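Purpose: get a first structural picture of the assembly so the mutagenesis plan has something to point at.
Setup: two entries, given in the order below. No constraints added.
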Amino acid sequence: MGGDFAPRNVLLGAVEALAMASNRFEIILVGPEEKLRNELKQISTGHAKFTFAEASQVIDMHDAATAGIKQKRDSSISVGMTLHKNGNVDAFVSAGHSGAVMSTATLILGRIEGIGRPTIGTFFPTVEGVCLLLDAGANVDCKPQHLYEFALMGSIYTKEMFGIDKPKIALLNIGEEETKGNEAVKEANKLLKQSSLNFIGNVEGRDILSGEADVIVCDGFVGNVILKFGESIPAFFKHQIKKVIQENLLFKLTGLVLRSTLRKAFKSMDYEEFGGVPVLGVNGVTIIGHGKSTPKAIRNMIFRAEEMARKKINSRIQEAIQQ
Amino acid sequence: MGGDFAPRNVLLGAVEALAMASNRFEIILVGPEEKLRNELKQISTGHAKFTFAEASQVIDMHDAATAGIKQKRDSSISVGMTLHKNGNVDAFVSAGHSGAVMSTATLILGRIEGIGRPTIGTFFPTVEGVCLLLDAGANVDCKPQHLYEFALMGSIYTKEMFGIDKPKIALLNIGEEETKGNEAVKEANKLLKQSSLNFIGNVEGRDILSGEADVIVCDGFVGNVILKFGESIPAFFKHQIKKVIQENLLFKLTGLVLRSTLRKAFKSMDYEEFGGVPVLGVNGVTIIGHGKSTPKAIRNMIFRAEEMARKKINSRIQEAIQQ
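Result (structure tokens, whole complex):
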């Protein structure tokens, strides 16, 4: 049980997932069992049946990312990840502390052999559809080899999960020419060119939303800044538009229609809509959701996790990295 | 003469500047004199009087940043910068090849003593007003000392030019805690905390538009990606909104009003509106404009350059760095 609206939204999402999937998989709810049972009584659960795994502790936003394997080993993140490690479940999803999920996944599940650094990406909307940007903040001071690994994992993920035959992989840079960029990026460009990936070259910040690439690779420092900057844009424009609307009666009159149009247009920019993001490079299936996940987002995270496990993404990654 | 709409927009901007300033300064037009004289005949110049400095070459977008001091020493950028170096003019402005203006400024004018790396920033709109983000792409693989210098120069610039008493300086990072970030940023945080600047700490990508800081410091790789990503947002939303408008008759009917509202709201995101950006850290006053500069932007660049020269920003920087 994690996230700002836990356990309510998590339970609602889990109920929805089981209903839509006609119970073809099972869900173990990890958290304080009594509290969860009481909460379940208050919602309509239909035919959903759950089992429970007791976890008494909560990792909150003020805890360090390492809390799951240090101070709070009885948190839902640690207990759930251990169930996964021991083979009791095929995947683990959480809308809790992202850093803690990432660290706990890496330390409890371990890295896929040959992967130096597991990664979390983020999905950006594009004029064409969607783009996976990796790394979104889990790794800073990345070496060229790490950037190459992100590209490889992103390529396999988008191929298997989105059915893209040869995902277009790009390297985020400050110019299209190979000579542009910092040292790590210049070296990564060489590695990517020599690889068997469908590497389309460097792209710039302006190309993220253009749909040129299916996967864009960058250092987690850059990725995280872009992710958070992007998330702040809808609120900023709402603020600017509010000012403009107040200037003019005609604008005021159309304000309501305007707002609903914008809400729709901005939705595509909303991280939430994509559900969660996978941790790639660990020996297991883990999806991290936004803290503000709605029941729908939770449901989608569960479906995505089931699909990742079913499609054996990790085996594909392991085969590819060992070649 | 530089920029996508040169010489027309540059000449119109120069005429406007002289008219609004009642000829309190002089402008030397640098470029192919005959062509400029012919172009001037086609526009209404009022009482504007210009002198000319012949420059036969043009640095175009395919030239390297070093072209101004290597292959094309008779370009308007090199000729104009040399006039400035020799004391014939107090400032140089250009809407041409940014990289070439930056390199030529650094190599012909030289660095201010004590400054390791001159920088170019970019202005972001905020809910409060405006924020200067430094570096916007001139410097990658920055050392902590460089980030500190950017902060110092940004502080002096915003104090003198915008009249902000104690500009709030922030360090762009992937978390607010001091322990977050890459190695360079962690060290820079220490330097900034020890400095006499009004350092408000780390900010994240989401805080760029919030108005928390007057100056945000980052490596040029990150700054450039954010700048270009930001520039791509209005077009992306226009595309998304177009799709939404087509879905619904009511939306269609209000489409026109919607468009003009959005145009106004997006203007604040438009780099163009801020005119140009200063090169900070060189022995001279140089403003770089957007390639698509309008006459208004050119006019504002000229005013900003005159103000920078008058306020002796470089002397202030030199005094501060030597303390």
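The mean pLDDT of chain A is 91.
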